[in-house]
Amino acid sequence: MDYVFHGSGVQHLQTIEPQYSLLLKEHVIYASADLYIASLFLDKTGGDYFCSILMDAGSRSPYLIERIENGIQLRYQKKKGSIYVLNKQDFKSREDIWKGEMISDHPVVPVKEIMIDDIATYIFTLSELKKINIIPFSERHKYVHEDDTDLRELFRQEMKAAPTDHRLMQLVSKYHPGFTT
């Protein structure tokens, strides 16, 4: 049987329930056929505003790109999580989602749980093993728009979808103040 992987900041889940996706405007569970991509979603604090996750056609390893100074530490340090192994038959790819992801619209029971007790250490170990590529903040513009156009557009879309999301506004105001003026 084929499997996919789901990274979560919540350990000991018996069933994974679909959550509302602002971008898809529906309840889904995200997963990846790639264990290392799923690892990057063990904690989603700050999302793309702290670290962007990209795939490069010339590389088999995902890129974790800091979008603010110390973005990796802010996102992952002193946090626990789990990677859940799930049956691939419950998931499907779609053209309107990122190529590294698959989705399910119904609850899924994990086949196995891989517990990670220190996500930051795990992420840096994956980098040392060349399973992921970490791009520090100072080198980010080799991989993303110099003017952060992509983040600005993401912020615009997210505010349009949830205009009263005060947590998002506070996060962006603190770490990307130029976006909110």
TrEMBL record:
Q: What superkingdom does the record give?
A: Bacteria
Query: What's the name of the protein?
Result: Uncharacterized protein
The source organism is: Chitinophaga filiformis
Q: What is the lineage of its organism?
A: Bacteria, Pseudomonadati, Bacteroidota, Chitinophagia, Chitinophagales
